[in-house]
Amino acid sequence: MTEQQRLSHLDETGQARFVDVSAKSVTVREAVAGGAVTMAPQTLATIRAGDAPKGDVLGTARLAGIMAAKRTGELIPLCHPLGIDGAEVDFEFASETTLRITARVRVHGRTGVEMEALTAVSVAALTIYDMAKAIDKGITIGDIALHSKTGGKSGSWTRTAD
User: Fold this and answer.
1) Which residues does UniProt mark as catalytic (predicted)?
2) CA-based nearest residue to 43, from 141, 125, 132
3) Which residues pair with 61 in a beta bridge?
4) Among the options 130, 136, 143, 162, which is catalytic?
5) What's the average model confidence in pLDDT over 2-31?
6) pTM for the predicted model, two decimal places
7) Fold topology of 27-150
8) Is 118 annotated as a binding residue?
9) Where are the domains of the chain?
């Protein structure tokens, strides 16, 4: 079996399998992902002021994102469960209608944390929607993407400007 086949989610017959990463070296790995939640200006102003009917939207979304990063192996088929060293979820009011989400996840491990960072952003965005949907059903979630990753055999990668 070649190195590429060994690290593939497909076995020799084309069936999905869990990749054996035991031969890979443990390294420090970090991934940063981001996304955006767009809503009516008054909805974002309500969230910013902390006056949403369901309470602290950003605090709850931050916690939900961190918890999701820790449980990514349970949510995404064939994703390795990882002992995460650190996870952060931050928010930026990018315009009067757009809230940007950034997640940074770190691990000492044999596989990367890209999925954990992407999951953190996704769940944080869904939590914002859930907590604000009573005042704005037109909220949209988008632009979820990996921004950068470091560590591992493939080294570092950074998204270039689109």
Assistant:
1) 130
2) 132
3) none
4) 130
5) 72
6) 0.89
7) Alpha-Beta Plaits (3.30.70)
8) no
9) 27-150
